[in-house]
Amino acid sequence: MKALVYHGPAKQSWEEKPLPAIQESTDAIVKITKTTICGTDLHIMKGDVPTVTDGRILGHEGVGIIEEKGSGVANFKKGDHVLISCITSCGKCEYCKKGMYSHCEKGGWILGNMIDGTQAEYVRIPYADNSLYPIPAGADEEALVMLSDILPTGFECGVLNGKIQPGDSVAIVGAGPIGLAALLTAQFYTPAQIIMIDVDDNRLQVAKTFGATSIVNSSKENAIEKVMALTGEKGVDTAIEAVGIPATFELCQFVIAPGGCIANIGVHGKSVELHLETLWSRNISITTRLVDTVTTPMLFKNVQSGKLDAKKLITHHFKLEQIIEAYKTFGDAAKEKALKVILEA
């Protein structure tokens, strides 16, 4: 089969790899029909994720059809149409029983990280009964790809961890796909203000159409002053960091109101500065999280019903064999006006 293979920072190739095989009775082999590229994949290409080693097939999102299953897989059969979760869950360990699937003792975020991932023609999915979701007939595959990772990530790590309540003021720093996923799902809780901050005017205009009440281009104006002015000099109740660089995490610390919550989503490859000299007395909470995908079933229903329009996050389409070109497009998002790309087998 063909697959996108990582060979160290800034080195990748579309090359021939052996077909995956059943290794455990709980495995399934899935033939990929559609997949995508995540911002985390870009962090991997920068060398920010040292657990990813030379030779790894990247990718942790997608939909496909079960080609083969192990004898221990009870919930699926060959030919079933499935959504692949970015998080692998055994369903039995201490962390899985707590709903912390991201810390599963036998799984977690392993696809495209510790084991070969979904940017390939076929992928092996461990613990298939707990790590796949059935796709009903007639469902929109492209929209459901957004449920593999970015929608539950934006919702769980940003909205839920950020403790957004009706009437709150919210700042989301980063209007990329994850930030926009947080924007879409934050509206479940009817905040009064959602302020989107980014350096890309196109993404900010998209955010406006997605429901942002205000937009701030931090490369053209003082974002701190603008947010404070928009909130009556109080700051925001929730600040969501959706980029993963020191400057954006620092910005969140300067716009948060007393009693507020800073929710980190971004993948950080470098240390950040924590301003405890100003935060220590302000009743601030700081949360971190790797997505657990516990909300995927609920989000699935909202996408299926049309209440959550996941498909509007998609801007570009490629064939799977065009993945190198797709990476260039996704990596140069400002120039290409790219959000999520769909790669079709």
Give descriptors for this structure.
7-stranded mixed sheet, alpha/beta, 6-stranded parallel sheet, 345 residues, Quinone Oxidoreductase, Chain A, domain 1, globular, Rossmann fold
Folded structure, characterized:
This protein is an alpha/beta fold. It has 2 domains: 2-149 and 292-344, Medium-chain alcohol dehydrogenases, catalytic domain (Quinone Oxidoreductase, Chain A, domain 1, Alpha-Beta Complex), CATH 3.90.180.10; 153-288, NAD(P)-binding Rossmann-like Domain (Rossmann fold, 3-Layer(aba) Sandwich), CATH 3.40.50. 28% of the residues lie in helices and 23% in strands. The chain has 13 helices and 15 strands. It has helices at residues 39-46, 94-97, 128-131, 141-145, 150-160, 177-186, 201-210, 223-230, 246-255, 276-279, 296-305, 323-331, 333-336, and strands spanning 2-6, 12-16, 28-35, 62-69, 81-84, 122-125, 132-134, 169-173, 193-198, 214-217, 236-241, 256-264, 285-287, 314-319, 340-344. Strands 3, 4, 5, 6, 7, 14 and 15 form a 7-stranded mixed sheet that branches. It is globular and about 60 Å long. The model has no long low-confidence stretch (mean pLDDT 97).
